[in-house]
Amino acid sequence: MRKESERGFSKGVQLMLLATFLFVLMNVFVKLVPHIPVMEIILFRSLISLVISLTFIKLNHLPVFGVQKKYLFMRGFFGAMALILFFATLQNIPLGSAVTIRYLTPLFTALFGIMMLKEKVRPVQWLFFGIALLGVLMVKGFDPRISWLYFLMGVGSAFFSGIAYNSIRKMKDSDHPMVIILYFPLVAIPICGIWSIFDWVQPQGWDWFYLLMIGLLTQTAQYFMTRAYHSDKVAKVSSVNYFGLVFALLFGVVLFGETYSWKILLGMVVVLSGVLLNIYHKRIKLNL
Fold it and tell me: Which of 191-205, 228-242, 248-262 has the lowest mean pLDDT?
């Protein structure tokens, strides 16, 4: 335990880093099906998640509907809203920019952590969150490919994610991670299913493989993310999400030929600086 602490990587941080990479890889597959409506993509993803989650729960004799049903529903509903908005931004703006805007999530996570979990955030940490926010605004200002509509949708996604993540933290001692994950498809399937009836696009060829990978990667990433939030403080593990920006930039440049001006990259560096300062502060505070 001491050795792990000296390195500065807790179990929660390690799990979140793995989850972050898998989420970014999932984002790549979402961008590979821009012709499939967002609601339809989430419907497929939810159906896959439902089958995997129910199978695991039944095999391990876990209570299907969990213990804290209020927070389980909140996790499912706000998680669904966050994903709908995020997928919409993913399909319409560059991968790196979409991920950068979503990285306002730790700010909202910390805010709702105060209200829902009575966690404390030191004044200097708000300064670091402010630096990250400034970086996101720089990216928006310097990237003409980001409209105000998709920028606000990205911010809305981060807002809802903050509520969903704190709901997960609220249930760390009562509900199994897979039960928590199950509530996403339970909420999302009725919403996306009804919507898709009126906006259906038939998948063709490789679309089926991409949709399958979206479901499998998201399920695996959610499992590790949920375990991460069970293992450590919300504000600490959520900060690791920012490292997904590096993965997103690499995938965006290599696979989609995306380009970024030095001003946009500077904004992204400012975002990462705010997060790294926050992590460094936590290491000092916790004597890691």
Answer: 228-242
